[in-house]
Specification:
With about 375 residues, the chain is an alpha/beta fold. The protein is built from 11 helices and 17 strands. Helix 3 runs parallel beside helix 4 and helix 8 packs parallel to helix 11. Bound molecules: iron/sulfur cluster (SF4). This is Radical SAM domain protein.
Length: about 375
C-alpha cells in the first residue's frame, strides 16, 4: 500500500500548517504562495527540507515519490499527512466523519465528533497540481453544508482548473442550495450519490434511516433540475441483487437525468466486514442478475459502469464496463495476477480483501 502518512521531525508550530514539498527545479504558476518548502539535503533514509530556517526531516528515500505533494502537519506531531499527492489521480479529502446514516456495509463507519478542517483543505486546494481531480468524502460532507459550499465555491473562483467528485448521501440538498450548485458548474463537480434499491423500505433498511429514500428522491430531483452531474452508486449486496433489474427500470423511469449508474462491489472493511458473510455477493459464480440489470439499463438508455470488480470475475461481454476504480493507495493484486495480460485494465482488489478469497472463480486472462 502507498503510505498516506510519513514520519518526520517535529517543527516549532502552534497551528496546523500546509506545505508543498519541492524536490526538483521545475516551477509552476502556483509556486509563489509561501507554502513551498525546498529539498536541501537527501540522505539514504530521509530527506531534509527548509521550512523558514528550520529543518524538516522526512523519512522517505526517493524524492520523486513526494515531489509536489501537499502535506499537512499538526503541532507537536511527527507525522506528515499527504493531503494531495502530486503523482496520484486518487486524492480524497475526508471533510467529516459524521453521518446521519449508518449503512450496513459502510467502509468508513461514522463517528460522533467533527474536527473542522475546511480552512486547511481550502489552503491545500490552492497549491494542488494543475487540473487535479479531488474527491470529497466523509461521513456525510453536506452535514457541514455551509463550509463545504464555501470551500468549493472558493476553489471554483481561484482554481477553476480543479475537478471535484463529491460523495454524499443526498439527504441534505434544499432548494436554497441550488444557486450554489449551479455556480459550481456541472463540468467541474460530479455528485456521487448512493441508491441501494428501488424499494423504499429496503433502501431505508440498508442505510438504517427511516424516510431516507423519500428524502433522497427530493434531493435527486432538485439536482436533476439544476443540471448537476450525478453518478448514481449502488453497492451490490445479497439483499439487493435479486431486484437489480427492477432498479434499472426504476432509474430509467424516474432518474433518467443521471450521468451514469455505477454498480459497486463491497469492501471488506468497517461495517462491511461485519456483514461480509451475509451480504457479499460472488458475481464470479453468478453474474446473471447483474447482466440482466446492465442489459435493461442499456436498452433504456442508462449508461452503466462497474466499480471494484476484478476483471476475470466479469463475463467477457461486460468487461468493458469494469473500471480501475480502486484508489492506488489501497489497491492490490493477488498471486494469480502476476501473469495476467489484463492487469493494466483490471481494478484488482482492496488491500483488505479476504486472503482466503471471496470470489470463487478468478484466473489470469
Ligand atoms: S487475474 Fe487478471 S483479471 Fe483477474 S484479478 Fe488478477 S489482474 Fe485482474
Amino acid at each position: 500500500m502507498i503510505p498516506l502518512r510519513l514520519s518526520c521531525s517535529r517543527l516549532p508550530i502552534d497551528t496546523p500548517i500546509v506545505l508543498r514539498l519541492r524536490c526538483s527545479g521545475t516551477d509552476d504558476q502556483f509556486s509563489a504562495r509561501g507554502n513551498d518548502v525546498w529539498l536541501t539535503r537527501a540522505e539514504s533514509s530521509h530527506l531534509e527540507f527548509d521550512v523558514q530556517g528550520f529543518t524538516l526531516s522526512v523519512k522517505i528515500e526517493d524524492p520523486s515519490e513526494i515531489d509536489g505533494d501537499v502535506v499537512l502537519m499538526f503541532p507537536q506531531q511527527t507525522t506528515l499527512h499527504r493531503l494531495i499527492r502530486a503523482n496520484s489521480a486518487h486524492n480524497t479529502l475526508l471533510v467529516t466523519e459524521q453521518c446521519d446514516q449508518a449503512c450496513i456495509m459502510c467502509s468508513q463507519p461514522p463517528k460522533k465528533r467533527h474536527a473542522d478542517m475546511f480552512g486547511v483543505f481550502s489552503e491545500a486546494l490552492q497549491i494542488a497540481p494543475f487540473g487535479a481531480a479531488i474527491g470529497i468524502s466523509g461521513g456525510e460532507p453536506l452535514l457541514h453544508k455551509e463550509a463545504l459550499f464555501s470551500m468549493l465555491l472558493n476553489a471554483r473562483r481561484t482554481r477553476p482548473d480543479l475537478l471535484f467528485h463529491v460523495l454524499t448521501n443526498g439527504q441534505h440538498f434544499d432548494k436554497e442550495d441550488m444557486k450554489d450548485v449551479e455556480e459550481l458548474d456541472p463540468k467541474h463537480v460530479l455528485w456521487g450519490i448512493p441508491l441501494y434499491s428501488e424499494n423504499s423500505c429496503l433502501h431505508d433498511r440498508i442505510v438504517k434511516k427511516n424516510g431516507a429514500f423519500a428524502r433522497l428522491m427530493e434531493s435527486l430531483a432538485l439536482l436533476g433540475r439544476s443540471g448537476a452531474r450525478i453518478e448514481l452508486r449502488t453497492v451490490l449486496l445479497r439483499s439487493n441483487v435479486a431486484a437489480l433489474e427492477d432498479m434499472a427500470v426504476f432509474v430509467s423511469r424516474n432518474l433518467a437525468f443521471i450521468d451514469y449508474w455505477a454498480i459497486m462491489q463491497m469492501e471488506n472493511i468497517g461495517f462491511g466486514r461485519r456483514v461480509w458473510k451475509e451480504e457479499f455477493f460472488d458475481n464470479s459464480a453468478n453474474f446473471a442478475p447483474i447482466a440482466r440489470a446492465l442489459d435493461t439499463a442499456d436498452i433504456r438508455g442508462i449508461e452503466t459502469t462497474l466499480y471494484n470488480f476484478p476483471l476475470c470475475s466479469v463475463p467477457e461481454p461486460y468487461r468493458r464496463r469494469s473500471l480501475r476504480s480502486i484508489s492506488d493507495w489501497k489497491n492490490v493484486y493477488m498471486a494469480q495476477c502476476g501473469g495476467c495480460s489484463a492487469r493494466p485494465l483490471c481494478s484488482g482488489f482492496f488491500a483488505w480483501h479476504p486472503k482466503n478469497g471471496a470470489f470463487s472463480k478468478l484466473g489470469a486472462i
